[in-house]
């Protein structure tokens, strides 16, 4: 118990400092760094309990699912097909970058793909262990991507497209009491996990609540419901602890060796996504700035802030970003399941061949 209390206390202090400095996702970064330091020094708990990890996955999944409403999707209008194509192209480019990252001796193919998928960093880190990846590597590379995007995106938008960055996006607020929001979120998590396990979905704590919350939102049953503000920071802290507590001295050294390669690939993916944004602007008849912001691979809150401050079509940008986020969160578990199945089949075939030779 003392170790958990010490971890909570230090995380709270570092979180407060990072938040005061205006760092994005302060809760997540603080919990990851503090837990990693505790783990490497042998002062932290052994691991995050599995129910806590599943709770964090469920909260994130429901938060994303509640963003997929009819108003957001209708913003795509007749441009839904090119927007969907750009989202799928981003997934393909991300996975290809992950395969290149896997050429490094410290990264396997599955971990490389999960590390480089552009979108849903917190969700991917939360499910990476369950999918068979190295959650420590996934966490560091994903958060490095988010950090680089948050730093470079406003600069590119301002210097290249002349956007302003003084404003901030309004996320709005729910129209229902907080306790109703909390009951809806809890219900979506419980029902989603139970159903996902019954039909054997991969990553049930993510895909189940995501599908249930999306279905309720699109049906209009829960119009005005949002995830209570206090829940997301809790989920971020749990996810940061889950990844951080898994670090060892050897894994820290391995991450250090991989980072130069990862940063280079992140920049390449960002450049390709910018080109996809230019293509989207041409096909959909939107401005170059809106195309760039809609396809930026990460940093959703920063993207919406720049969109609002620059007078861009925030609704369209948000719609493309949300659609891509949902695609990434659904594609990663199913892709990992297929990959692991193929790898197991190859292993069995190799064993049969060796047996026949002997």
Automatic annotation (TrEMBL):
Keyword set includes Transmembrane helix: yes
Pfam families registered for this protein in UniProt: AbrB (PF05145)
UniProt feature coiled coil, ranges: none
GO cellular component, one term: membrane
Transmembrane segments: 80-103, 148-166, 178-199, 220-241, 261-280, 292-316, 322-342
Keywords: Membrane, Transmembrane, Transmembrane helix
GO BP: any one term: regulation of gene expression
Family matches, as InterPro entries: AbrB_dup (IPR017516), AbrB_fam (IPR007820)
The protein's name in its UniProt record: Ammonia monooxygenase
Native organism: Rhodococcoides kyotonense
UniProt lineage: Bacteria, Bacillati, Actinomycetota, Actinomycetes, Mycobacteriales
């Amino acid at each position: 118990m003392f170790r958990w209390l010490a971890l909570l206390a230090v995380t709270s202090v570092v979180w407060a400092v990072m938040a005061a400095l205006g760092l994005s996702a302060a809760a997540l970064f603080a919990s990851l760094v503090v837990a990693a330091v505790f783990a490497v020094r042998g002062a932290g708990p052994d691991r995050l309990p599995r129910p806590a990890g599943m709770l964090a996955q469920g909260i994130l999944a429901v938060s994303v699912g509640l963003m997929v409403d009819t108003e957001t999707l209708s913003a795509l209008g007749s441009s839904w097909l090119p927007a969907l194509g750009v989202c799928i192209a981003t997934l393909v480019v991300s996975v290809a970058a992950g395969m290149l990252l896997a050429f490094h001796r410290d990264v396997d193919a599955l971990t490389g793909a999960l590390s480089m998928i552009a979108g849903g960093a917190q969700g991917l880190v939360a499910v990476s262990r369950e999918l068979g990846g190295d959650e420590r590597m996934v966490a560091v590379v994903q958060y490095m991507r988010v950090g680089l995007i948050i730093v470079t995106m406003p600069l590119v938008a301002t210097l290249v497209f002349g956007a302003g960055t003084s404003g901030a996006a309004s996320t709005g607020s729910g129209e229902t009491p907080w306790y109703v929001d909390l009951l809806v979120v809890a219900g979506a998590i419980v029902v989603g996990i139970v159903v996902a396990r019954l039909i054997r979905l991969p990553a049930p704590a993510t895909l189940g609540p995501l599908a249930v919350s999306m279905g309720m939102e699109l049906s209009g049953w829960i119009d005005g419901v949002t995830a209570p503000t206090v829940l997301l920071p809790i989920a971020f802290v749990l996810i940061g602890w889950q990844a951080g507590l898994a670090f060892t001295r050897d894994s820290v050294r391995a991450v250090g060796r991989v980072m130069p390669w990862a940063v280079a690939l992140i920049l390449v993916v960002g450049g390709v996504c910018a080109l996809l944004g230019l293509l989207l602007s041409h096909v959909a008849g939107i401005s170059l700035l809106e195309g760039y912001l809609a396809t930026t691979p990460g940093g959703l809150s920063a993207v919406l802030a720049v969109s609002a401050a620059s007078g861009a079509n925030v609704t369209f940008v948000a719609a493309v970003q949300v659609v891509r986020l949902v695609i990434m969160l659904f594609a990663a578990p199913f892709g990992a399941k297929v990959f692991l199945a193929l790898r197991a089949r190859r292993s069995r075939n190799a064993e049969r061949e060796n047996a026949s030779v002997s």
